[in-house]
Amino acid sequence: MQLGFYFDQQRCTGCHTCVVACKQWHGIPAGPASWRRVSTIETGKFPEVWVGHLSLSCCHCLEPACVSACPASAISKRDEDGIVLVDQSLCIAGCQACLYACPYRAPQFRDDSSKMEMCDFCLDRLHQGGKPLCVVSCPLRALDSGPLEELKARYPGVEQAPGFADPSHTRPAILFRAKDGPASPPS
After folding, report:
1. 77 is a domain residue
2. Could you report the per-residue pLDDT of 138-186, keeping only the tens digit for each?
3. CATH number for the domain including 157?
4. Can you count the helices (H) and strands (E) in the chain?
5. 76: in domain
6. Which of 9, 77, 171, 174 sits at 20 to 30 Å (Cα–Cα) from 85?
C-alpha cells in the first residue's frame, strides 16, 4: 500500500493554515523550515490573469530521488505504507544533497548547517488512526490523504497541476484537482 495526498487547487485560497498547523504540531520554530509550504502562482496579463496556489509537503514518491542522493543512507522509504523518512542520527549536517535531488524541494533545513527534516505524514497521528494535521486543519477541505489507490477512486484527480514540477521521474504520491483559468498557467 502507498499512502499519498490529494490537493484541490480549485479550493485552496492560500491561507497557509496547513503550514501553521504543521509547524505548531511538530514544534518547528519560525524560520525557513516548513514541512508543508504554500506557493502562489500568477500568470497572464489583464484582463486574462490566472492566480492559483499550490500546497506541498514531501510527496512520498514511489521513486524518491532523495533516497538515492543521500550519501549517508539517512533517507528511506517504508515498505508497509510508502512513507519516506529521514533518520537524523545518520544525516550529515549541511550536506543538502537530498534537497538538490528533490524536484519538489521537500527536504527542509533550519539553517545551512542543520540536519534535514521533512514531512513524516504525521506518523504519530497515523498510528492513532488519524490523518495528517495539514489535512484536518484545512478550512476549505482542499487537502486529503490516504491509500493512493483509494484517493484515485474517490477523486477525479490528475498527476499534474500548475506550478508542480514534472512528476515522471519520481512518481510522487499526490493527486490534484487542478485549477483552470483564462490564461495558460505555467507547468
Report:
1. no
2. 999 999 999 999 999 999 778 888 888 888 899 999 999 988 765 545 5
3. 3.30.70.20
4. 6, 7
5. no
6. 9
